[in-house]
Amino acid sequence: MVKQVALIHAWMLLLALCLQLGAAAAGKLPLSDSAQDGGGSGGDTISHSLTLVQRLEALLLQGNGSDVSLRVETPSADEVKMIQAHSLVLSLQSPVFEEMLLSRNSSTLVLKESSDCAAVFDKFIRYLYCGEISVRLDQATPLHKLATKYQVLGLQQGITQYMTQNLAQESPSGHVASWYEYALQAGDVTLRDSCLQYLAWNLSSVLQSGEWVTISSQLLMSLLQRSDLVLQSEMELFAALEAWIIQNEPDGLTAENALRAVRYAMMPPRELFRLQTQSSVLARYQESVRDLLYMSYQFHSSSPMHMAKYFDVNCSLFMPRNYLSPVWGSPWIISNPTRDDRSTSFQTQLGPSGHDASKRVTWNALFSPRWLPLSMRPMYTETGAMQPTRVEGGRPRIIITPATSSADFAGVNFQKTVLVMAQQQGKVVVKHVYNFHQSTEENGDFLAEADLYHRTSEYLIDSSLFLHIVVKPLYQTLITTKN
């Protein structure tokens, strides 16, 4: 009996040593200075940590020295999985396992898991032994559930990072919306916000996928209320919403709230008329949006200056989103973006009102890859000698100005938006959205983290920087005339 206890203690010490060295090999835990130099200065490092990790994995697979059995059951009991494990490893890696092992009354722990979690439980346990794991898109959510349930924080954070970095990955039925719903339920704010931002900034591609009609009503409303949606036009959004309503048949209040979030004033009058005569969904709920349609027709039939005397034109109904239509902006592909300054010109419609439909504004855009802020420019003394200043290089900047001033601009502010594309998993996605009135200098962080120098950078596609400039006319409310 004493010999058996001593053997168990020896296994426990070996497991602790292997676990520490294994984590170091996986980049999870740095070796101490004494371990690096052999306890003295000037020594060389001899590392067999990878071998130890392999032996630790073999220990798990073979079950040698196991002192606890994990019985993984699903709610329907149609699947049972038995895993031979070691209490020390489980306790060191998970406070939940530690508490369960202290209060157990047998050598078997019965664990109730959902079917998707049970399917990846072997992977989860292997991570506890080896400090590494391979993940597929369909395995991310159940692994995150297990890491959260058993409080394995390193794995939980690692899976969250994996998910935020793989939002653009192609999948048969889509995964971003389901990840958003899971993050909302799990309280993972980082993952929730990353999913919502990706969906908003790449909405055109999402609307064309099979995932769109499966999203929840809560996520639908979260998207419809945003002004930073990137899509072709408001008509594209209405068509997608109509398909969602037909597919999901929501209750009347949900459908009405969704339809009232559409910005009908951003549609040309002829499109509004077509919707009223041809859309079955709009015909069914027309009474709930009649006031919005009426205001939209008024908006298109009168000048914005006149409209602003009687209505709050700063409300969302009259505020454009980030439309990719040529009417509101232009793509700009900048080859070799670190080489020198570039410029381009394009035209947009003066405003979304039908009153301005025939009016165009010409814009000049200047891109400077190494512009220096005033605080970083060389300073001169009274004698003309240059004073030393900060030596950091310049940073990218874009300036967008109208080619000519016009009285037609009265009552209109122009917000400029630059969409910055990146290539992720072979797919071009919107990586950043910058809003400003004249220059990206107003942001202070324009392309601050972008690598524009290496061909392998995700910000470069065929050595070029892909941008899309959107000009958003925002009307100003004047003094309201009271009846």
From TrEMBL:
Q: Does the keyword Kinase apply?
A: no
Q: Which SUPFAM superfamilies match?
A: POZ domain
Q: Which InterPro entries match?
A: BACK, BTB-POZ/Galectin-3-binding, BTB/POZ_dom, SKP1/BTB/POZ_sf, TRAF_BTBD17
- Every BTB domain range: 66-137
Q: Show which residues constitute the signal peptide.
A: 1-26
Q: Which domain of life is it from?
A: Eukaryota
Q: Which UniProt keywords apply?
A: Signal
Q: Which residues cross the membrane?
A: none
Which named protein is this?
BTB/POZ domain-containing protein 17
